[in-house]
């Protein structure tokens, strides 16, 4: 996991550097603009990395035969929950060490907008937790590492590339009065989408969504949106782990 930390650290340093170069200092505007760009990059990288990491971890054990030994002594839910917690802790350390540097620099300089980076870190941790759980499910249902890799790449491509374009195509075909409920409904079925939108609102990018989403932007400034995002993230993690346990039990029969 050390290379994760190095990549995150370099991204954070580059974010601060280009922010200073563009705006002359580490200001809220600099952090806001550069963090938005960094967010897009992270939302491409973290899902595919976590999917591959967790799916190969489980599929590899079945392919090597070690899962059969674990099956006889430990319950599947304990095995998979332990794997998820371990991988989540590793990602948490990598993300915090890598991106926490930028937030620390902002805090040392007394910059109030340094909280932007800590929101960014929190969103990335939620994203990692969800896709690690989904990856465990993929690994539990796939017969070998190669299949797990291919399925993980398909899920990543669908969730990050295909789904947003399909959502946009559907979005522009419906009346404007349905834009907000349709957007909310579509995003709930894609964890990457709803976390990306949540992050955009939290760092002050609600203007991008237009006047129809003004009420949603105001709601994002309350604790209710934070609670909703945390609860829905927990639902996604629960679904992923449940599906992983079902796959593990199926292969153990």
Structure description:
The chain has helices spanning 2-23, 28-64, 66-73, 76-108, 115-141, 145-171, 179-188, 191-202, 214-219, 223-252. The protein is mostly helical. The chain has one domain. The protein starts with a helix and ends with a helix. The relative contact order is 0.14.
List the helices and strands and how they pair.
Blueprint: H1 2-23, H2 28-64, H3 66-73, H4 76-108, H5 115-141, H6 145-171, H7 179-188, H8 191-202, H9 214-219, H10 223-252
In short:
The protein has 253 residues and is mainly α.
What is the count of structural domains? Answer: 1
Average pLDDT reading: 78
What is the helical fraction, as a range of percent? over 70%
- What distance separates the N and C termini? 33 Å
Q: For the report, how would you describe the main beta sheet?
A: none
Uncertain residue segments: none
Number of helical regions: 10
Q: Would you tell me the structural class of the helices and strands?
A: mainly alpha
**Series of H and E elements:** HHHHHHHHHH
Number of E-state strands: 0
Our Rg estimate from Cα atoms comes to 20 Å
Global shape = globular
> How much of the residues is beta strand, in percent?
under 5%
């Amino acid at each position: 996991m050390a290379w994760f930390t190095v990549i995150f650290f370099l991204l954070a340093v580059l974010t601060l550097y280009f922010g200073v170069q563009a705006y002359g200092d580490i200001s809220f505007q600099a952090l806001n603009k550069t963090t938005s760009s960094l967010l897009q990059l992270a939302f491409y990288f973290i899902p595919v990395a976590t999917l591959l990491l967790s799916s190969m971890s489980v599929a590899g054990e079945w392919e090597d035969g070690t899962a059969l030994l674990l099956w006889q002594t430990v319950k599947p839910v304990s095995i998979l929950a332990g794997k998820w917690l371990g991988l989540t802790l590793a990602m948490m350390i990598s993300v915090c060490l890598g991106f926490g540097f930028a937030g620390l620099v902002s805090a040392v300089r007394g910059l109030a907008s340094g909280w932007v980076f800590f929101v960014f870190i929190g969103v990335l941790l939620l994203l990692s937790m969800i896709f690690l759980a989904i990856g465990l499910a993929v690994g539990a249902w796939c017969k070998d590492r190669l299949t797990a890799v291919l399925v993980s790449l398909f899920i990543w491509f669908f969730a990050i590339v295909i789904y947003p374009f399909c959502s946009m195509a559907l979005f522009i075909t419906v009346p404007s009065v349905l834009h907000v409920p349709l957007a909310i409904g579509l995003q709930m079925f894609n964890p990457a989408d709803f976390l990306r939108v949540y992050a955009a609102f939290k760092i002050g990018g609600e203007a991008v969504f237009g006047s129809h989403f003004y009420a949603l932007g105001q709601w994002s400034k309350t604790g209710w949106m934070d609670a909703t995002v945390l609860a829905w993230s927990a639902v996604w993690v629960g679904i992923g782990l449940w599906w992983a346990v079902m796959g593990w039990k199926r292969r153990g029969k």
